């Protein structure tokens, strides 16, 4: 083989090898773009009592949720938003040094028109004598009727029924008007106390009070220095028998507290006087 042919073949071989090396280098350095981190919603509209799950898509590491107005909307550590009262709040989501925001607008759902009821003799009798106008009958019979209406709930909510802050209940405009609200949502212990109160008083407006001497059977009282709500079943001097939700994460009937040492702050009553 001639020397010139050998040189040509060598040059072609080196050129091919160089091309392969360059191509491999280019392939290895092509950047791979990371998936964009973003909230699944930037704006949501809810009715009082509704919930919505916020998610930070493609996020890595710790994600922290917070609400700018907890009185309007709260958010759990997992991103579940709960609408509390009418208004607007922002949910902030922090991840990897960045903050993402979702605007939550909470509205009150208008109550559906009620169909007039007609009760003929012998029909519609529930067996529970609930006072039609609290405060208009004598105290003893009224308290007994309220107690019977609340204690009847024990069949639906027996001792130990699981109950946490995930359980909510809504007072519409008719009931919440006495508190100055267009609607009111309670969670956990407050929710169960509201259910019990409605069982006895229906849609009679609720009013707030701070004088513990006026506590009556059926009242909701806020104790433990404004951290726990209970409903009053019986009163014996300073000894109050109560029913409560979210007590050790469950419903409990019959605990006795002393009104002078229980950390009473205020109460809600449905009595007119």
Structural account:
There is one protein chain. The protein has two domains: 38-107, Immunoglobulin-like, CATH 2.60.40; 139-269, Alpha-Beta Complex (endopeptidase fold (from Nostoc punctiforme)), CATH 3.90.1720. The strands form five sheets. Strands 12-17-13-14-15-16 form a six-stranded antiparallel sheet. It has four helices and 17 strands. It is of the alpha+beta class and 273 residues long.
Helix vs. strand class? alpha+beta
Average pLDDT figure = 83
CATH overall fold name of the largest domain:
endopeptidase fold (from Nostoc punctiforme)
Q: CATH top level of the largest domain?
A: Alpha Beta
**Total domains:** 2
Proportion of strand residues: 25-35%
* DSSP summary, beta strand count: 17
Unreliable runs, pLDDT <50, ≥5 residues? 112-133
H/E element order: HEEEEEEEEEHEHEHEEEEEE
Question: Do you know the CATH architecture of the largest domain?
Answer: Alpha-Beta Complex
**Which sheet architecture does the biggest sheet show?**
6 strands, antiparallel
Q: Order of strands across the biggest sheet?
A: 12-17-13-14-15-16
Q: Could you tell me the radius of gyration in angstroms?
A: 32 Å
Distance between the termini: 121 Å
Helix content: 10-25%
Shape: elongated
* Number of H- or I-type helical stretches: 4
């Amino acid at each position: 083989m001639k020397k010139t042919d050998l040189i040509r073949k060598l040059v072609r071989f080196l050129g091919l090898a160089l091309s392969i090396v360059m191509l491999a280098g280019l392939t290895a350095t092509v950047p791979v773009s990371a998936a964009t981190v973003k909230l699944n919603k930037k704006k949501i509209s809810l009715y009082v009592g509704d919930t919505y799950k916020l998610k930070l898509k493609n996020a890595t590491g710790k994600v922290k949720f917070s609400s700018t107005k907890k009185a309007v909307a709260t958010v759990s550590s997992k991103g579940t938003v709960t609408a509390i009262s009418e208004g607007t709040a922002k949910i902030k989501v922090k991840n990897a040094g960045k903050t993402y925001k979702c605007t939550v607008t909470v509205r009150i759902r208008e109550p559906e028109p009620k169909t007039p009821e007609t009760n003929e003799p012998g029909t519609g009798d529930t067996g529970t004598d609930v006072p039609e106008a609290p405060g208009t009958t004598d105290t003893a019979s009224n308290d007994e009727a309220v107690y019977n209406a609340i204690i009847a709930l024990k069949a639906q909510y027996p001792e130990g029924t699981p109950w946490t802050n995930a359980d909510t209940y809504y007072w519409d405009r008719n009931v919440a008007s006495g508190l100055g609200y267009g609607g009111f949502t309670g969670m956990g212990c407050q929710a169960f106390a509201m259910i019990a109160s409605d069982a006895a008083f229906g849609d009679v407006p609720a009013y707030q009070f701070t004088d513990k001497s006026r506590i009556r059977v059926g009242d909701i009282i806020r104790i433990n220095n404004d951290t726990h709500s209970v409903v009053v079943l019986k009163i014996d001097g300073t000894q109050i028998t109560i029913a409560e939700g979210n007590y050790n994460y469950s419903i409990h009937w019959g605990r006795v507290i002393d009104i002078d040492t229980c950390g009473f702050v205020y109460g809600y009553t449905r009595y007119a006087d």
